[in-house]
Write a structure and sequence with these properties.
Helix content of chain B: 25-40%
Largest sheet of chain A: 6 strands, antiparallel
CATH superfamily of chain A: Histidine kinase-like ATPase, C-terminal domain
Largest sheet of chain B: 7 strands, mixed
Number of strands of chain B: 7
Largest interface: A-B, 33 and 27 residues
Radius of gyration of chain A: 16 Å
Number of helices of chain A: 7
Order of helices and strands of chain B: EEEHEEHEHE
Oligomer: heterodimer
Strand order of the largest sheet of chain A: 1-5-6-4-3-2
CATH superfamily of chain B: STAS domain
Strand content of chain A: 25-35%
Strand content of chain B: 25-35%
Distance between the termini of chain A: 40 Å
Structural class of chain A: alpha+beta
CATH architecture of chain A: 2-Layer Sandwich
Helix content of chain A: 40-55%
């Protein structure tokens, strides 16, 4: 389908293995913007839920919550219509933990996401991290642009997105971050 | 001087000895961190050498907060100084992120508490 683009490492690695844990939640972005702390509450809740699967629960919970929070915060920030539902999913299968978030956005933001995901796969991540900080320091922005770089750089996460045109200037984006379990258990 | 909310505390030590940031910091945007970090900026500007930032008890810092801390690193760089970050081995993001900030300012150090 020509109106669907996949960028980066979007393909799920979960394959045919049985699902160990799976949770999906839906939110109204405005609800989270009004009380921003709710993003962290949701991330912590899901991370604690999954953390029971790991020997070092404290460390696993911290890493999983960090990933969930960054992905959820992005979905809220890049939702153009803050009353349109967004979704957050967590899946633990085999040797991977997948976190994904979907939201609706406009053409400019969808294209920016596509360029950003491509950069993650073509540039040195440490260089990109520094460039992004210098870029944000020069001009005030609502988002740091560091979240997904950090997840890929520090936890060797696979990061990808799917962008689907739903209507003129309305795009659904799904960002998927796949974390190797060995990184959670380090 | 101490700034506190239900989630975090920022305790500035006397005589530019440094700052201790603890708890959970997940604010909305980089600009939301300005009121929290402004008192640190003022102290950092008065310091004569490297300034100590102890984040060992900071459990979470979102990417907007990393931008906030990186601005302190850039400020120190503009004064030809560094920041000595004190981190915990048990909070996984701390050492990874602060080590990356050394690329912004080679005078930044990272040590564990």
């Amino acid at each position: 389908m020509s109106n669907v683009r996949e960028l980066g490492e979007f393909t799920s690695l979960t394959g045919e293995e049985p699902i160990i844990s799976e949770l999906y939640m839906r939110f109204i972005p405005l609800d989270l913007v009004a009380h921003w702390k709710r993003c962290g509450m949701v991330a912590d809740f899901l991370a604690h839920f999954l953390g029971y699967n790991f020997e070092n629960k404290e460390m696993a919970t911290n890493i999983i919550s960090t990933v969930l929070n960054e992905v959820l915060e992005n979905a809220v920030k890049f939702s153009v219509d803050k009353s349109e539902t967004i979704a957050l999913g967590l899946r633990y299968v085999g040797e991977h933990i997948e976190v994904e978030a979907s939201n609706k956005t406009d053409l400019i933001k969808a294209d920016n996401l596509a360029k950003y995901i491509q950069k993650l796969h073509t540039e040195d991540l440490e260089d990109l991290f520094v460039q992004q900080i210098e870029h944000t320091a020069a001009k005030e922005r609502t988002a740091s642009g560091l979240g997904l770089i950090t997840l890929k750089k520090d936890y060797e996460a696979r990061v990808g997105c799917q962008i689907t045109e739903k209507a003129p200037n309305v795009f659904e984006t799904i960002v998927r971050v796949c974390l190797p379990v060995e990184k959670v258990e380090q | 001087m101490k700034t506190e909310s239900g989630d975090y505390s920022v305790r500035i030590l006397d005589n530019q000895q440094g700052v201790v940031i603890a708890g959970v910091l997940r604010l909305l945007s980089p600009s939301a961190y300005e009121p929290v970090f402004d008192p640190i900026r003022k102290e950092l500007e008065k310091a004569t050498g490297n300034y100590a930032v102890d984040i060992a008890d900071l459990i979470f810092l979102n990417s907007s907060g990393v931008t906030g801390l990186s601005r302190l690193v850039l400020l120190a760089r503009s004064h030809s100084r560094g920041i000595d970050f004190i981190v915990s081995e048990t909070v996984p993001w701390q050492k990874k992120t602060m080590t990356s900030l050394q690329r912004l300012n080679p005078k930044v150090t990272v040590r564990t508490r």
